[in-house]
Specification:
25% of the residues lie in helices and 48% in strands. With 339 residues, it is an alpha+beta fold. The mean pLDDT is 87. It comes from Antarcticirhabdus aurantiaca.
């Protein structure tokens, strides 16, 4: 056998080995994918059955797994939740969730609208959007962080016979949460927020955001948010408000500082308030939250006397003790307890 023929034979064997390895890997990947798909479908069915045993109904019409070979996901042509004990009823459009085979700890999801939501604390809502996407990151201890992005959200009150009463629209809404050093961080932005409810339609477009930390609440990510009212969830808790900001043209305000809530729902905290065009801000607050109108108007009056000008805004301390608010040395009134 010549050297050339020996070289060709060796090359053929190498190609054959590579081909066999590729076939084996493909077979293993295929087997692993279909095993994982069956597990996802089985566990989803178990979760639905467990919810039913606790008196809740979860619907996932047309449930199927998809994404072979490099992704794996679960889809439903329509979704619904009916949980009487939590006073929650929701129905939505198609749901698609997926994870990359090489990064199973990160799950992305899309939900089609509309979403009809009926809860204990809110009137029935009809929610619509152009695109709603969520991303969840899981680790060994459970959920580590999550985010939600909604393009062109449209919020309306659900009316009889399928009608809707538009309340507000926006360009984009985002919500992020993560665990950090035992605490739970929330951050949200609402860009291009516009009220279209007739009583509020004269208000200017706004940009709103907040960044809040709840001390010792990182475990909520793995176990789920505690059930109950705002008072039951936050009573006895404390944390830091890094920033709560609203900008409406030339008018705007920003609030920051540590906070705590007593077991009976009363707020306390030492805050820094920065405000531009205080009377315009007070008018906006009074229109959206009439219960806070007296405090907002007193704040606007006090800012001109006690505020320190900083970067075009008036800055002054806002102290709240067991619901009693004081701006500098001016008492503002009481903040209602959490319900």
């Amino acid at each position: 056998m010549t050297a050339s023929s020996k070289g060709n034979s060796g090359a053929r064997r190498a190609v054959l080995v590579v081909g066999l390895v590729a076939v084996v890997l493909a077979a293993l990947l295929t087997g692993a994918w279909f095993y994982a798909a069956r597990e996802i479908d089985r566990r989803t069915g178990e979760a639905i059955a467990a919810a039913a045993a606790n008196g809740a109904t979860i619907d996932c019409a047309g449930r199927e797994t998809f994404g072979y070979p490099f992704r794996i996901g679960l889809s439903c042509s329509a979704v619904g939740v009916d949980a009487p004990s939590a006073e929650l009823r929701a129905t939505g459009g198609a749901l698609r969730t997926a994870a990359q085979i090489y990064d199973p700890g990160r799950i992305v999801a899309e939900l089609d609208g509309p979403l009809f939501l009926d809860t204990r604390d809110l009137p029935p809502l009809d929610l619509r959007w152009e695109l709603a996407q969520a991303s969840l990151r899981f680790g060994f201890g459970g959920l580590q962080r999550g985010s939600l992005s909604v393009r062109a959200p449209d919020v309306a009150l659900a009316q009889p016979a399928g009608d809707r009463l538009p309340v507000a629209v926006a360009d984009r809404f985002e919500l992020h949460l993560r665990g950090a050093d035992g605490n739970l961080d929330f951050a949200s932005t609402d860009r291009g927020l516009r009220f279209v409810l007739p009583a509020l339609a004269s208000l200017p477009a706004m940009e709103a955001s907040f960044d809040l930390s709840v001390t010792g609440a990182e475990g909520w990510l793995a176990s789920g948010m505690p059930r109950g009212t705002a008072r039951e969830v936050l009573g006895g808790r404390e944390g830091v408000l890094r920033s709560a900001r609203v900008d409406a043209g030339m008018a705007g305000l920003e609030l920051s500082g540590p906070w705590r809530v007593s077991p009976d729902g009363l707020l306390s905290g030492e805050f820094r308030l920065a405000i531009a065009e205080p009377q315009q801000v007070a008018d906006i607050i009074a229109a959206i939250l009439p219960d806070f109108a007296p405090i907002a108007n007193q704040t606007a009056s006090a800012v001109g006397f006690f505020g320190v000008r900083e970067n075009g805004r008036s800055v002054l301390p806002l102290t709240v003790k067991d619901g009693a608010a004081t701006l500098g040395v001016v008492p503002l009134g009481r903040i209602p307890p959490l319900e």
